[in-house]
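In keeping with the milestone schedule agreed at the kick-off meeting, the structural modelling team has produced records for the first pair of proteins. Each record is given below as a sequence line and a C-alpha cell line. The laboratory manager (R.T.) confirmed that both were archived under the project's standard naming scheme.
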Amino acid sequence: MNTPAPVLKDYAERIEQLATKLGLDFYPVDFELVPNNFMMEIAVYGLPVRMRHWSFGVRYIHQLIRQSMGHSRIFEVMFPGDPCHAYLVENNSLPENTLVTAHVLGHADFAKNNHLFARFMEMAGGHILEQAAARAHRIEAALTQYGQQRVEAILDAALALEPHIDINQELHRRPYDTNNGAVPAGAGFEPAAFQKRYQNLPGEKTASRPQPTYSRAPIPPQPEYDLLWFIANYAPDLEGWERDIFLAVREESYYFYPVFACQIMNEGWASYWHARLLREADFLPHDLYLSAIKAHSDVVRPYASGDQVALSINPYHLGFSMWEHIIETRGLAAARQICKEEDDFGFIRNYLDEDLAEKLGLFVYQADQDGEIKIADRDIHAVREAILAPKFNYGAPRVAASLLHLDGSLELTHDSNSDGGGLDTDSAMRVLDYVERIWRRPVTLHTVDRRGDPRRVSSKSNFAS
C-alpha cells in the first residue's frame, strides 16, 4: 500500500516539532517520496545524479538480485548537508515511512553535531547534491568531446582508487613547495684552517668558487597516502579534464568518509531516536505505532533473517544496543558528547564493554579448511578489533606514493605493518594496471608476501624478490 503523502507530511512536521522539543538539533530536512526503482538507483550510485560508469550498472544488477531474493530492502537514503535530503520509497507503508522520518531526524542530528561530518561541511559546504550534479554535467561534456573510451578509462582508474585518500589532510590542498628544502650540492663544505692560510699567501690568486648547483627536493617530501590528489597534481601527462575527474572522485570520497567511518554510531543513534520519538508521539494512531515498532524490531534485530546465525555485525543492532546502554548508565548529556567527539573506532574501543559484548553474543570466529565455523576468541579486545578491521583506512590497503623519479617513473610503498600483512597479488596487479594506464610511466609497488618477505610488484611483471 502506497504512503499517502499528505498524511505523512503532517506526521513528519509533528515529529520534527517533537524532536526539537526533546533536544535534537539538525539542519532542515527535505523529504521526498520516490518510486522503488529510483531509490535503487540512488542507493547504487550513491547520489541522485552522479557520473555515469559501468560499475554502477553491475552494482544495480547485484542489488536487484538481492532484493528479488529477499536479502535486501531499502527504506531510505539520506544525504547530510544544509539542508539534508532524504528519499523515502513511496510504496512502503505509512507506518514504515513514519518510522523512517523519525530515523532520518536522528541522522540529521548526528550529521550536524559529529566532528567528522562538521569537518567535511567546513571544507566543502553542505550542497553535495548540487555539486555532484554539476560534476556529472562536466563529465557528460567530456564524453561528448573526448569519447566514451577515453573518459571511461580515466573513470576506471579514479574509481579503482576511490578509497585512497588521506582523511587527515584537507580537501583543498596546495601542491608541494618543491623549492622548500632544496639545497646547493656540496653546501655545508667549509675549507679547513690549513687551507685558509694558503689561500691568503702573497701572489696567490683566489680561486673562484664554483657556482652551487641545486638539487630538487624529493617528491613527495614524505609518504603520500592521498593517491587521488597526488595523481591529479603530479601525473606527468594528464590533461586538465582528466585531472578534474580525479579531483571530482576525490571530493565525493571525502564526502562519504564520515558516513563510512561512523556507520555503527550513526545508524544506532538514528535507531535510538526513531524508537524514542515514536514512543513519545502520542498523536500517532495506536495501530500505526504498533506496525512502526514491528518495523523497528526488524531493523535492529541482531541477525540478517530468521534464526540464521549471523557472522557479520548488524550496525543498527550493535549501535542501538550501545546507545541504549550508554544513555541508561551515563545519561543523555554524556551520550551527546560521545556523539560529537567519536567515530566508530573510538566508539567501539571506548564504549563496547565486556558485559555488553557478552549480552549481545559477540565473538571472533574462524573457518576451517572444511568450512566448519568455530569460535576463535571471546576476548573483548579481539572482538573490538574484529569489528573495526574492515573500517581501517576506508577499507583499502594503506598504500603511499613514496618517490617520483626524474624520468617520471613512480614508486608506491605498501604499509604492510599497519595492514598486518601483504597484498593479494591479483588485486595489486589490477590496481597497478589502472595506475600505470593513467600515470603513463612505469609504476612499481613495494610490499611483502604472506610470509613477510619483501616483494616488488610491477604492472608489467610478476612478483620478484
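The second protein of the pair:
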Amino acid sequence: MSVFPIINLRPAVTEFLQSVFLNTEVLAAVGHQEAECRFQKLLSCLSHPPSYTCVRASTHLAPLEEIRHKLGEELKKQMCSSSADEEVSVQILTHPRIPDVLLLPVDGPRPVKQLSSEVVVGAQCGSAVLRGAHVFAPGIIASPKYMKAGDVVSVFSDLEGKCTRGATSFQGKKAFVGNGVAQMDRSAIFCADEPAKGIGVRMVEPLYQSPSFDGVLPGLAFLQNLPSVVVGHVLGPRPGERILDMCAAPGGKTCHIAALMEDQGEVVALERIRNKIDRIRQNAQMLRLRSIKVYCFNSTQAVSSDPVQESEGPPFPPESFDRVLLDAPCSGLGQRPNMGSTWSLKEIRSYTPLQRKLFHAAVRLLKRGGVLVYSTCTVTLAENEELVAWALNTFPCLTLQPQEPHIGAEGMLGAGLSPEQLRLLQRFSPELSWDQTGTAAPLSCRANRDTIGFFIAKFLKN
C-alpha cells in the first residue's frame, strides 16, 4: 500500500506527535505495541490520498440523482477526450447516510514507470496532483535545462522545501507523483517578465488516477472532504435562523450551511484575511445563495461592548446567533495527502491560545439554547479533546451533545474526559483502519474511515 515515505516532519514535531499518540491513557487502554503501531500508520497514511474523491452536491439547486447523472456525463466527456478507449465508465456512488454526498473511487497507487526527464514541484502542488490536479506553472520549481512544450516528464514533489527555484536538477528528498506532458517551454516558466500562469504540465499518467474537476459543473458539484460536509449536518441549521461562521474562508462550510437552511435566514461569515473574502463571495454567488453576508473581521474581537449597537455588521451584541460554527485555524496535521511539512514545533503549538480566544467569543455570541460546533483538521490532543475539556471547565453553561451523523470514531484518550464524553465527540482517525482500506471493502464502507484527520465537538448553551 505504501508507495511514499512516511510524512516528512521535523524531528521535534515527530517526537511531539508520538508523545500525543502514546500518552498515558492510550498506553493503559491498548498497550505500547498497539499505540506505536497506530502512530506509525498515521505517519504513513498522511502522505497518501484517501481512496475516493468526495463531492458535495448542491441539492438546493437540483435533486441528487440529477446531479449524479450530469456529473457522470461531464466526466465521461473529459475521460474520452484523453483516452483512446471509447468504453469509458465512471463510477459515482451516493453516501448511505449523508444525503448530499457523492463518492468517486480513486485508482491507485498505479504502476507508473519513472522517466529520466524530471520536473520538481512544491509539496502543496504535489499533494494537489495526487488528488487529480494538473501541475500549474507557479508550482514548478525545477525543470530540465532544455524542456520544451510537448516533452514527456516525470513529476516529483520536493518534500523538504529545499529545491532552488529555477534549478535544472534536484538531488534532495523528493517523491514521484506521476508522468505528464509539458505545456510550456522552460523559458516561459522561469524567464518571462511576469509570473507564468495556467497549466505547466498536463498529467497523463498520475500515480493516483482521479477526475480533474477544473470547470466541471461549478454550481452543482463542490469538492469538499467528507468530514467537512459532516460538520454542516452536525450544526443542524434550520430555515429562518441567524448563524455565524467565525473563520469562514474559503466558504465551503458557509455555503453548505446556507444550502441546508434552504437559503432562508442569515449566515454571517467572518474572515480576518482580506484577500480571502472574495473567494467566499464567489462561492456564494456560484451556488446562488443570497442569505450569506461576508465581513472582513477578526472573530476574536467580534463581541460588541455596546448593548444598543445599531450597525448591521461586526462586532455583534452578545447572544446574537442561534448557532455558531467555529472551524478553527489549526496546525492542519490531519490533511491528506501531505508528504512533508517544514513547520517547527513552536508553530504547531501556537494555535491553542488563538482557539481559546475564538471560543470565548463564540460562547458570548451564542444565544441561550443555541448550538456551538467546534472543528479542526488536525490530530493533536491540545487542539481537540484537551480544548473540549478546557471548554467544559471554563463554561459551565456548555454541555456536549450527540452528533448526527456520527460516522467517525469517538474522541481520543488522553485529555481526562469520561467515556461518555468521548462517545459524544467525533474524531476521524484514518490510522485506525489504514491496513483495511484496500479495494476489497465497498467504497461506501471505506469512505467513513479513509478520510483526512478531523475533529468535531457539538455543544449546547444552557
